[in-house]
Design brief:
GO molecular function, one term: methyltransferase activity
Largest sheet: 7 strands, mixed
Radius of gyration: 17 Å
Pfam family, one: Methyltransf_25
CATH class: Alpha Beta
Number of domains: 1
Organism: Cryptosporangium japonicum
Structural class: alpha/beta
Strand content: 15-25%
Oligomer: single chain
CATH architecture: 3-Layer(aba) Sandwich
GO biological process, one term: methylation
Helix content: 25-40%
Protein name: Class I SAM-dependent methyltransferase
Order of helices and strands: HHHEHEHEEHEHHEEEE
Number of strands: 9
Strand order of the largest sheet: 3-2-1-4-5-9-6
Number of helices: 8
CATH superfamily: Vaccinia Virus protein VP39
Amino acid sequence: MFARQGPTLGELTVQALSSVERGYDLLAPKFDHTPFRTPAVVLDATAGVLAGYGPFTDGLDVCCGTGAGLMVVETLCDGRATGVDFSAGMLARARDAHPDASWVRADARALPFTDAFDLAVSFGALGHFLPSDRPALFAGVYRALRPGGLFAFPIEAPPPVASGWYWFTRGFDLTMRVRNAVWRPPFVMYYRTSGRSAVTADLSTAGFAPTTVELTAAGEYRPGSPRCLLVLARKPDPSR
């Protein structure tokens, strides 16, 4: 869970009572010592699958945080690697970790790119967007990709009802809904608002051709029941 260098309970409480942007600015110096950072096993599994879909030249990490996903971009792309996030604190940490990458501070619902990348990835960010926000997010990624470009991101597969994780996520989302009903500014973070059907439907509406594959290398709830699915959304290329 939390490493010794991670945030205290008091620091987490202050973050949870802040806006999303301010909360991550506060958490940034210790973020990599929390369980919120995308595990290396998920990053490695994603890179392993995407290696079969290249080659890629320029890559974008959407909602890059402290830059964990840049490992995937830098591994797969021969050209420039770019990260975008709206937290200045998270971007500062990312710059330190990946000095050769480019960094842009922007709201992911209004990405400032057009036909600039062959690959876009995102890790652990969808829970910070309400379903009503996804059309703007996906439209921006679609616009940022070149024809034939690929948008890829892991989502959690539904956990078994009998598992502790199933009930934790239900309880967490309920707690956040209560918090946001009684406290301002809201802190948007939900586990159960980004199911496969809803996400792929929104991607299709944005113009993508989405599919999903099981990310079995990232772990299983039980044999044959993967913890993660990898969403692969291709921007059509009219010339092909």
